[in-house]
Amino acid sequence: MTPDYRIYQYDTLPSTNQTAIEMAAEGAPEWTVVVAKHQSAGRGRLDRKFYSPEGTGLYMSIILRPRIPPSQALKITAAAAVGVAETLESTFGVRPQIKWVNDILVEGKKVCGILTESRLSGTDLAFAVLGIGINLAPPSGGFPEEIKDIAGAVTNQVSDPQAVIRKFLEVFYPLYQNLTVEPCPFLPAYKARLCCLHRPVHIIGAEGTWMPGIPVDLEPDFSLKVVLENGEVKSLRAGEISLRFS
């Protein structure tokens, strides 16, 4: 089962998310999908750049208009993470893991980043734009020096992005329809793929500050429960974690 979607395909855009945000603000309907073969200014969380070379990746943004409070917008990212992981597993036979909150790893390397950006109407959620970037194959010449140790690709061969889009929408649609169901029906699937539970991590804040700790559980709202080195227990709703391998 898939939604009634419409795809807008571009050769290149600065950012599919930015284009989708502009379209949503002008009234574009839910399930409008913006796809580009290349992004010149792709971005991830905390205003980080997202490397988006032509010919080897899938870069898309989806306009959503969920009837949920802004405080629950994290569930959109979580549902998308489950959707991407299940799509890649069924399509390519890989075993994806989720790095809280928005990265998909294959064999320890990041192959996908997810960025959900929302806009408010008063205190309500006017719309959300779900951005997904997937490294389907390695870029010619390899990844740039600054990310070559952490970035990876799903396969070694270029795949049909349209087929991956269709499969993702098929998988994501029922997850999205369950955003308001409590307890969240896709939380167990998300938690089962988390690669960081019970492993030492650095909790890195937006300003670059960090604290060592160990994630011990996933809360019902997808917050990450972490025990710090000093024994303090924190529930993280935002920020970035970086795995610390020993």
CATH superfamily of the largest domain: Bira Bifunctional Protein, Domain 2
Strand content: 25-35%
Number of strands: 12
Separation of the first and last Cα atoms? 44 Å
Total helical segments: 4
CATH class type of the largest domain: Alpha Beta
CATH topology of the largest domain: BirA Bifunctional Protein, domain 2
Strand/helix succession: EHEEHEEEEHHEEEEE
Helix content: 10-25%
The count of domains is 2
CATH architecture of the largest domain: 2-Layer Sandwich
Summed over residues and divided by their number, the pLDDT gives a mean of: 90
Q: What structural class is derived from the secondary structure elements?
A: alpha+beta
Q: Taking strands numbered 1, 2, ... along the chain, how are they ordered across the largest sheet?
A: 1-2-3-7-6-5-4
What profile does the largest beta sheet have? 7 strands, mixed
Molecular shape: globular
Task: Walk me through the structure.
With 246 residues, the chain is an alpha+beta fold. The protein folds into 2 domains: 6-193, 2-Layer Sandwich (BirA Bifunctional Protein, domain 2), CATH 3.30.930.10; 201-243, SH3 type barrels (Roll). It is 22% helix and 33% strand. It is built from 4 helices and 12 strands. It has helices at residues 16-25, 74-92, 161-177, 187-193, and strands at residues 6-13, 32-39, 57-64, 97-99, 103-106, 109-121, 124-135, 201-204, 210-218, 224-228, 233-236, 240-243. The strands form 2 sheets. Strands 1-2-3-7-6-5-4 form a 7-stranded mixed beta sheet, sandwiched between helices. A 5-stranded antiparallel beta sheet has the order 11-10-9-8-12, with no helix packed on it.
